[in-house]
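Wed. Picked up where I left off yesterday with Mitochondrial import receptor subunit TOM22 homolog. The coffee machine is broken again, so keeping this brief.
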Amino acid sequence: MPQIEELSPDSGPLSTRPLEDEIDDDEDEDLDETMMERLWGLTEMFPDTVRTAAEVSAQCSVSLAKQFYR
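Structure written out below (tokens, as returned):
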């Protein structure tokens, strides 16, 4: 585990390096799939019953929201 080191103004100039998470994010930018391809890929992860239940829940939520604003 990294240790925390106290620095005083007399210690001189400091150099910083990018966080490891920022370095790893650069690799993700090379993906060539579109948003629709990603969403379609998500449908393969869930069974039909879960997708149907999510669709019905979304439709009910939209319907209720419309009724509240009338």
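Quick read: The CA atoms of residues 9 and 23 lie 29 Å apart.
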